[in-house]
Amino acid sequence: MSVTTSSSLPSEALTAGQLPKHTAIAMLVVAVAITAGVLALFGAAGPASIIIVGALLFLVAMFALSGAVEGIRKAKDRMARYVVTGFFIIALFPLVSLIWQTIAKGLERMDAQFFSYSMRNVIGEGGGAVHAIWGTLIVTGIAGLISVPIGLFTAIYLVEYSGRGRLAAAIRFFVDVMTGIPSIVAGLFAYTLFSFVFGPGTNSGFAGAIALSVLMIPTVVRSVEEMLRLVPNELREASYALGVPKWRTIAKVVLPTALAGIVTGVVLSVARVIGETAPLLVTAGITSSLNVNPFADPMATLPVFVYYQYITPGVPQDPFYARAWAGALTLILIVMGLNAIGRLIAWKFAPKTGR
Amino acid sequence: MSTTDAEATTSQPNDTTDDLTSLRHSRRRFGDKVFKGISSGSGTLILVILAAVATFLVGLSIPALTADAEDLQYGEFWSYALPFAFGTVWAATLAMVFAVPVAIGIALFISHYAPRRLAQGLGYIIDLLAAVPSVVFGLWGINTLAPMMRPLYVWLADNFGELPVLGWFFTGPVSGTGRTILTAALVLAVMVLPIITAISREVFLQTPRLHEEASLALGATRWEMIRQAVLPFGTPGIVSACMLGLGRALGETMAIAMVLSPAAVIHFELLTSSNPNTIAGNIALAFPEAFGLGINQLIATGLVLFIITLAVNMTARWVLSRRKEFSGAN
Fold first, then answer.
1. Which InterPro entries does the protein's record reference (chain B) (predicted)?
2. E-strand spans in chain A?
3. How many Cβ pairs closer than 8 A exist between chain A and B?
4. How many independent structural domains does chain B possess?
5. What ipTM was predicted for this assembly?
6. Most exposed residue of A114, B129, B177, B303, measured as fewest CB within 10 angstroms of its CB?
7. Are B43 and A217 inside 8 Å of each other by CB?
8. B23 pLDDT more than 80
9. Helix, strand, or coil here: A316?
């Protein structure tokens, strides 16, 4: 045992009172092996129970061993390290499991038909999500067209025009408040707005776009504001010194300098709203046909398509579930792709901040 | 700020020469006016939008609150809304119980334990969780997590279901599908995890270097250093991160609507098949079938949700802004 070996060393040795380097790994293996053996004796061995009980046994044993050899303070330090590392591994589980499941079940229907057919007149097998993909692109595109200018100019106002005015303080505060609006409430807002204007029960892609804009504007404002603040003041001053008016300074100096960051922020905020389901459920609704007119009639979108395919399957159920998973995989691919593009732009064109 | 200085000097009235006056009123200044108008206009527009959200929600909620109970699709409003309000708070609380310790642990792992070269990449991995659409989380919860957790639920009900206090939570019969509020809360916990982790990580990384080094120089172990320097510095940040996560958990719709097998009940049982639904989940499930005043009732529950999340978020921002005042520790 390591206890006897370390205590038999002369006390002047540098490694005195320390556990050998690979004790923890050895202990982990031993703990899991013992747990597996004991649980097998009771007939309760399963991968989950072995890992959970084994990890607990490892923590207890390691604490006892380290406490005896290294002292209680080092033992606590070790515990903190193992627990924190363990938490990280726990968090990886849902991510890996989710992505694995989606890929495994989604690949079944990721075929040409899925991307070229709508659900019009489809009862069982076959069919596709082309109407939902178009709907998602149209709704998100309109939401972007509404939110990006508003968000961009608000950020310009906050950074360039009113540093600490009362209006700016109010805008900042309410942008923060807006970030916290539950997505379903944004959907209800758009629904009520359109009920007022066009009569109750109106579903349209444009209403969905309004709902998404409410969610998208604050993220655009925040990220653009952050980027504009990174632009060094010397650039602005140099421009003023040359007699350039303020608006041209902003348009020709400040915005181009921050362009990469702004594009990244916009792409990431699009990625955030493109997967929103709840607001589109109450505004854009669902249809089984392709509808490219955002101003009339319900418009299917990918998240809502996934939801309805899974929640209200027909008979037989399997084709509906398969379409739901394929839709989910498509959605994940779009969102992760947008995230990757955003980070790539940020990484490639990032201004040197001197840090 | 030098930008405001520049503006102030150009607009000072004491430059009386004709050249400057003409310059000031030239067309170039007109461009400035337009640009400033557009900018402050869109800023104001945001305030208008938020006011519109509040007005429309309140305006359409009033019929549901004032009409007779017989005329309402779902009966008297408050007795209809109360179980959902309870379910909202209860599910979010459970989610926070799971998410907060794990999120803080992960944030500490990334900021102070992981090898420096890997730290940023590991942060991105956790951020990936935030990129997954909520409807996919719902699919995963119903398909993978619920069946996986069911054996554990059976075990919990068998061992703790009869005990005096724990019995309130773990009493049987266990749901056959595993689609209980505990599963829904676990899915919610996974969804709020990246938010809390991201903010806490930022705050931990801002801990003054000198505080950490002073602690280590006095012979503290890494954990003691974290308890002495990092956590006290980061506490307000953690609190507001948790509040923001709580705001997200309160308003999350799809995970609840898909995972939970809902009922309109008020109890603390975690494992049975009758679970208190949340406001957001109920709106998503009931909205397609609602008509007439029923829609107004659902909008009124949405208003209740809006007020709850607003209160939580405002508290979070307030705590965070207070922190700025005395974060000049370095």
1. MetI-like (IPR000515), MetI-like_sf (IPR035906), Phosphate_PstC (IPR011864), Phosphate_Transport_Permease (IPR051124)
2. none
3. 283
4. 1
5. 0.85
6. B177
7. no
8. no
9. coil
